[in-house]
């Protein structure tokens, strides 16, 4: 539009330029994490799957994490900055060294920020590397950091799973018995039990015929196998989410299954039976069924929780896989 104001022509351009924003493709967080773990392996020679396993472990032991992005490892401030530090800001590496902290700079800005993914991961890798880079060295480093046997075992097992499948994207689940068999179950968690003294039922009973296959429900490692006077022949699998899965009253084990073995959802590990409530070999004191229990570890203690909602969810997901 052209206007004449006081003999001066003023050109007014009224242009509406549409803003075209091309939507960026959604980033796959698993790929982003893998890229970060592998780049840190190249830099420090600490195998990526150990760093990934530590990160996964810490994801489930903290209610909040220092980083809001990809990395869940959370160093306590006094350990990161030094016990004498009263600063609430990211410090330079030289400041942290003076204060006796372990925080390191992983992205080259000379600041060790305990909320920065690169700094966090580099600091953990550097902590491990001071002990060495062999499997045994790394195991010792992890124990010296957490000073808890179960933490070390969980992390080492998760690393074994990640190494075997060469990915951290392992979210599939499977119902513990094949859906084409006759079975039934209801929520029995917390019900009273009398054998061996008054106690509560820490699981869900899935009733099925003798010999029906029992399957791993998640990715994990066989942690326990053998006889228990309550559970009879039983197997325990620790998964990559700090959860212990307990399969009890089995009629027997799948041939070749052993402690330390990596399993995936759907792997047969045993068979439905009615064993337990007595010395080894006791059977038939109750109808055949699978006792399925779940126990969560938070880095300090382990407790049972109700598996029934998870079984219902996995049953539905397993049924979809068959369609």
TrEMBL record:
Key words, A-Z: Signal
UniProt keyword annotation of Glycosyltransferase present: no
Residues spanning the signal sequence: 1-23
InterPro entries in the cross-refs: Cell_wall_metabolism_enzyme, Dup_hybrid_motif, M23ase_b-sheet_dom
Signal recorded as keyword: yes
Gene Ontology molecular function, alphabetical: metalloendopeptidase activity
The M23ase beta-sheet core domain, residue ranges: 200-298
CDD domains for the chain: M23_peptidase
Pfam (any one): Peptidase_M23
PANTHER family per UniProt: L-ALA--D-GLU ENDOPEPTIDASE (PTHR21666:SF289), PEPTIDASE-RELATED (PTHR21666)
Protein name as it appears in the record: Peptidase M23
Organism: Pontibacillus marinus BH030004 = DSM 16465
